[in-house]
Amino acid sequence: MKINRRAAAYGVSRSADGGVLLTRGSDASAFPGVWSLPGGGIDHGEHPDDTVVREFAEETGLTVRITGLRTVVADLARLPDGTIEHTDRIIYDVEVTGGELTPETAGTTDLVDRVAPAEVAVLPLLPFTAGVLGVGFESADPALRAAPFPVASDRTGPVQRFGAYALATDPDGRILLTRIADGYPGGGLWHLAGGGTDFGETPEDALARELYEETSQRGRITGLVGVSHRYDPAAVGPEGVPLQWHVIRVVYQVTVPEPTPAAVTEAAGGSTSEAAWFTPEQVGNLPLTELTRAALGRTG
Q: If we measure between CA atoms, which residue out of 283, 266, 262 comes closest to residue 215?
C-alpha cells in the first residue's frame, strides 16, 4: 500500500452577505472540478500562517490577513493512483486587504469565485470544505479508516511532523508538564504534553492518546490556543541521524477534571522522562521549551 502524508493551511473569507470564497480544482489536481477553500500544502520550514497568506495570493490574486484560528482537522483520501493520503488541515478565518480576484494559471486550481450561501450546497466540494462550511457530505470509506497503515521508518530525508499538544490544567489551577528525555531535541526542558499524530489519526485522538501515555491523565478539550512551528535543519534524533526537523504544532486548552499523580505510562526509551503537576509560581522557575512559554503567554 502506498501512503502519503501532508500538512496544509486554508482560509475562510466571507463577504457581508455571507458569501464565501472558493477555488475549483484544475486538471492538474487530484480532484478536478471539485471546489475547496483557498489554501494548500505547507512548505518544509514554512509557518502555517505564512502558508495561508501565500496560497491565497497564488490561487485568488488577493492579499489577506489572518483574523482567527477556526479549527484543525485531518482526513484520509484515496487518490486516483491508489495512494492513501492523510492530510492535516489548519483552517483560518481571513480578511481580504487588497488585490484583484484572479484565478491561478498553470496550477492546481483554475477558477476562483465568491459563492452565495444558497449555492454552496449544490457545488461538488472536498469533504473537509463541506465540513467547515456546515454542508452535509459522505464521510470517508469505513474500510479506509480501518485499514492497518504501515509505519514509516525511513528518517534520512527532511522530516515534517504534525503534533497536537495540551495546555492542561486542573480545577486548582495547576499546570501539567512533561520533561523531554535526554537525547531528544530540547532534552531536559519542560514541555506541554503531546506529540506527533499517527497516520489516519485526528489531532484530538492523538492528543488523548499522548496525554495518557505521557502523564496518565484523561482530559477534555475546551478550546484552541494556537498553532506554531519549529524548523531546525540541524536537529539530530536519538539514532544520531540528522532530521532536517520541521514540526507543526497545534495547542489545545485542556481541562483535567479528576487529576491523579502524573506518571509516564509509555514504554521506556521514549521522548518523555518525567511528568508532574505545577502551580503557576513553580512553573516560573522551570526551564521551559519555547512552545510552553508561548502557550502560557497567550493564555496569561
A: 262
